[in-house]
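Internal ticket #5521
Category: modeling
Description: The requester needs a full-assembly model to guide mutagenesis choices. All entity lines are attached below as received. Residue total reported by intake: 637.
Assigned to: D.W.
Attached entities:
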Amino acid sequence: MRDSSRPERTHPIRTISPRPLTLTAVRVPRDGRSAAATPVLDIDGAAIAAGEIVGLLGTSGAGKTTLLDVIAGLTVPASGTVRWGDEVVSALGETRRDLWRRAHVGFVFQNVQLIPELSARDNVLLPFRFGNWRIDGAAMQRGATLLAALGLGSGSQSAGRLSRGEAQRVAVARALVAQPPLVLADEPTASLDRDNASLVGDLLLSDARRRGATLIVATHDQDLVRGFDRTMQLVAGRIGGAS
Amino acid sequence: MVWADLRAMRLGGIIAVVLIALAVAIAVAIGAQERAVRQASARAADDFPLIIGAPGSASQLVLTSVFLRPEALGLLPSAVTEKVLADPRAAATAPIAVADVVRGHPLVGTTAALVTRWGRLQPGEGRMFTAEDEAVVGARALLAVGDTVTPSHATAAMSAVPGIVSPEEVQHRHEGTLLKIVGRMPATGTAWDFAVMMPLEGLWEMHGHGHQAGHPTPGVPAIVVKPSGVAQAYQMRADYRRDGALAVFPAEILTELYLAMGDARDLLLAAALLNALVVLLAITLLLVTLAGLRRSRYALLRALGATRMYVALTVWLGAFILCALGALLGVPLGLVAARLLGLVLTARSGLALAPSLDADDWLSPFAVALAGSLLGLVAIWPVLRLRVGEALRG
C-alpha cells in the first residue's frame, strides 16, 4: 500500500515533546437520556505512550469520534480525566483547552471541513492565524512544502473547487503544518479512492514517525492501520480489545 | 477570517450594506437639506431688515416680499404709505408691489435702490431702468435684454413657471402695455433672480393708478425699510403695528419658520433613524441566522485552536464592518441626494441651496454604526453557546 518512491518531505521539523496520554474513568453520557442509559463513552482506563501510533477500530456508533473529541478537549467528559503528561486536559477551562489544543493537536476531520472561501493554502495555514497578526516565513514555507508533497501545487485554488480527494489532502496538510505532538484523524480515508487513501495514510504515518508524534487514527480501514504500533477496538463506547 | 466570513455572505452582505447606506443617507439628506434651506432663506432676507405692510399675516407679508410667493396682500393706506416713506428714522425705503406676471416670471414694482440691494449690486448686463416702461430681470430669468413684453394680471389660480406662458396669462394681459427689458442683474441666490423688476410708478400706471403731483400716494402692499439704527428699527416696528399697518422683522418670522422646520426635521430624522434601526434589527436577525447556519465553520475554528473570543470577535467584526461600511457610504450618498434635491428646489424657488456636511451630519452614521456594533453582539450569541464537538458533526 505504501509507495516508497514518494519523495521525502523536506519541511523543517520542530522539536516536539510528545507525552503519554492517559484516560481514567472517562464517561460521556448520551444527551437527554437518563444516567442509566448506555453512555456514548465509558472507558475505565487507557494509556497511549508518547509517540505511539494507534489505530482506533470499531463499528459506526462505537464511540470512536467521541473518544477523539474527548482527547482533543472538544468534548468534556461528565466524569473521569484525560491527561497529557502531567496536564489534566479535561480539567482545563474552555479557553485554556482551546490554547492547549492549538499548541498540541492536529486534527483531521471525517467530513474534511475546509473553508470554501479561502484558498487551499490559506486553509492549510489556518492554525497559524489564531495567535498571530502575520504568519511567519517558516510557517508559510512549511505549508508550501506540504502542499507540494501532496500534489496540490501552490495551493492557490479556492478550497470550494477542490475534489473530495484534494480537499482531504488539504485537511491533512492543515493538521500537520504546525507539527503538533499529537495528531488525531477521524476516518481520514473514508470516501476516498484507493490512490488518495494511500497518499493520505502514507503522509500521516510517515510524518508521525519522522517527528516522533503521537498519532491516533479512527478508521474502519484495516489497510490503513497496517504498520501502526497497535490498534484498539471500541465496542459500544468501551475498549473491547487491543492488538 | 472576517473577510472569508463576509465573502460567504455574498449578495446578502452587499444588500445589508446598501440598506444601511440608504437608511443613513435619508437622515443625512434631511439634515443637510434643512440646513441649506435655512441658510439660503436667511441670506435672502439680509437686504430686508424691516417690512411694513397692511395688517394680516406676518408670514405671508415676508413670503411675498422676500420670496415673491404670489399671494394677494392688502394695501397699506395712502396716509400710512406716505408716513413710512417720509419717516426720518428710515435710512432708506422701497415700496414693493408683487401682483403681475411676465411669461411666468413674477413682476415686481419697486425702486432701483432695492433692485440694486441698496447700491451693492449693478446690472451685469445692460443698465438699470430709468423710465416707467422699462424693466430689468434677475440673473436666472428666461428673458433677454432688449425683449419687449406685455405683463398680465396674476390671478390666484395662476401657477407661474418661468419661461412658460400659461393660458391664464394670455387671458389677463395688460393689452397695450409694452415693457422693455433694459438690463439683467447679477445672481443673488434668491427668488428675485427669476423676477422682472420695474419702477413702482410704472406698475401703478399699468393698473390705472397713475400718481400725479399733489395727489395722495397710492397704497402699496409692502414697504421695505432700512432703519438708520437698531433703536430706530425697534421703534418703527412698534409704531407701525397699529393704525392699519403691520411691521415685521423678516428675521423673526424666519426664526419661527425655522423652529417649525426644526420640529419637522427632528420628526423626519427620528423617522429616518427608526427606519435605520429596523434595518439594523433585520440585519442582526440575518447575522444571527447566518451564525447559526455556520456553526460547523466556527466549530472548525475552535477545533483548530481558535479561542471562543477569537471566533466571537470574527463574527462581531463582520457585523460591525457591514454596519460601519453602510453608515460611511450613507454620508456621501445622503449628500448627493441633498444636492440633487437642492438643484430641483433652486430651479423652482430661486433660493441658492448648497447642501453641505457639518459635524451634526456625522451623528446619524455614528449612531447607526454604534447601534450596529451593539446589535453585532447579539449575532455572536450562537457562537458563544457553541458545543464544538456536536457542531462539527452536524
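Resolution: model delivered.
Comment from assignee: The CA atoms of residues 8 and 80 of chain A lie 41 Å apart.
Ticket closed.
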